[in-house]
Amino acid sequence: MAKLSVVPFAVQEGATGIVQNSSERLTNRDAEGTTSGRSRIVRRQRACLRSVYALTGEKRCIERHLGVHYLIVGGTLYSFNGTTLTTLATLSTTSGRCTMAFNDNDQILISDGQLLRYWNGTTLTTVGGTASFTPGNVAYINGYGIVNSSGTGQFFSTTADDFSAIDALDFATAESNPDALQTVFVDHNDIFLAGTSTIEVWQDTGGVDFPFQSIPSAKIERGTAAPLSFAAEDNTVAFLGDDLIVYRLDAYRPTRISNHAVEEAIRGVSAAGRAAADAFVYTVSGHKFYTLTFPGELTVQYNYATGFWNRATTYGKDSWNVIGSAGRRSDYVLTDAGICELTPDLNQDEGADVVRTARSAPGYAGGRLITMQEFFADIMVGRTAIDVTAEVMLRVARDAETFGNVRTRSLGAIGEYTTRPVWRGLGQGRRPVIELSASGNFNFAIMDTLLNATAANS
């Protein structure tokens, strides 16, 4: 008999269509590399949502400007200073995503995909000179508000430091390739004009007739499948490409950051879900994440520090129902219930359970039958509040696909630091997959796992 000791536990999303080879999954948790300690990889739970302000209505966007957050919910534009929610204006639409941009005069440029409007501090008014095109998304650069014209290759610019009007001649066309623009996005004084198959980069050159010109050498031979997938963090831009691969820009070169498992999951999303994909970035306790959501179908997160991917969900849902800022630091996010704050020391989203799951790759011993005598999970124990029951659930798929019954073990009450979550007599299989999960109001951190097993000689 051959002795086995290690199960290849997940460090990121690795599940592909060939589940008998790869089934790794981290949901509502991520793997963090450490420089000290007995385990160099710790699987932590993601930051959870603390409710700040209850607010009903469809959540459409939220951005931060000079310490104040502005949000559109239903047909209403609000400001929020962390305590008080103030109604500013009423839009003519009540659904569909919006984008916002701000200038130094505290004006807000707003596109709801139908009309282009601006808030001047008192009223919400339609931007002059926009009747001839349907606005796409908005952005800001050096005093100018810019917006792409939906269904065309054109983008328009407001006058400097004034969002009130667009001159009929203040437009240009991204014409290196005849693909319609999907969005405009600004980062590091570069304007990214993203089409269906290419991205052009323009800059403010100070021209008299029109201030922006393209950088001929910066054309990116890659378009986008989702206009709202663009987000800026870590001194670069990430987005979902037209080939359903997630990229980050290295200078002006798109570098693939998704893995095959993530790409396979994205391909499984409906066409409508892919087009509606929405991204935001956030930083919690030094951990930076690019979060890409296909509403109602899938949410995947990229950890900038490790390059690992994980999934995120709202309880009972397939995606994580959160809307945040696409690249400017934001203290709050929007959920179905209202305004929330991402908090690392919480174990629940707005008081509701979060199912945190970690699943191994299939164990393998050259096709030999594996007998699993004992499985030990090195999990943080003895730190649960007195009135909380802390239990971890285990399931085994002995054939890598069919999971058996749930078996639970205690993680100990407060102070019970010698608790050992051990499962014995897990049966036999040729490709065993082990899954650990928990959903209670306690911290669920996995340091390591150990499987004591033997494999038959033939």
Largest sheet: 5 strands, antiparallel
Taking all Cα atoms into account, the compactness measure Rg is 25 Å
Kindly report the spatial arrangement of strands forming the biggest sheet: 2-33-38-35-36
Q: Number of helix segments?
A: 2
Estimated structural class: mainly beta
Strand content: 35-45%
Explain how this protein is built:
- The chain has 458 residues and is mostly beta strands.
- A 5-stranded antiparallel sheet has the order 2-33-38-35-36, with no helix packed on it.
- The N and C termini lie close together (9 Å).
- The model has no long low-confidence stretch (mean pLDDT 93).
Q: What is the element layout, followed by pairings?
A:
Blueprint: E1 2-4, E2 25-27, E3 29-33, E4 41-45, E5 48-54, E6 59-65, E7 68-73, E8 76-80, E9 85-90, E10 99-102, E11 108-111, E12 116-119, E13 124-126, E14 135-141, E15 144-149, E16 154-157, E17 171-173, E18 181-187, E19 190-195, E20 199-204, E21 212-214, E22 231-233, E23 236-240, E24 246-250, E25 253-256, H1 260-267, H2 271-275, E26 278-284, E27 287-294, E28 298-303, E29 309-311, E30 322-323, E31 333-335, E32 338-343, E33 356-359, E34 370-379, E35 391-397, E36 407-410, E37 422-429, E38 433-438, E39 446-455
Antiparallel strand pairs: 1-39, 2-33, 3-4, 5-32, 6-7, 7-8, 8-9, 10-11, 11-12, 12-13, 14-15, 15-16, 16-17, 18-19, 19-20, 20-21, 22-23, 23-24, 24-25, 26-27, 27-28, 28-29, 30-31, 31-32, 33-38, 34-37, 34-39, 35-36, 35-38
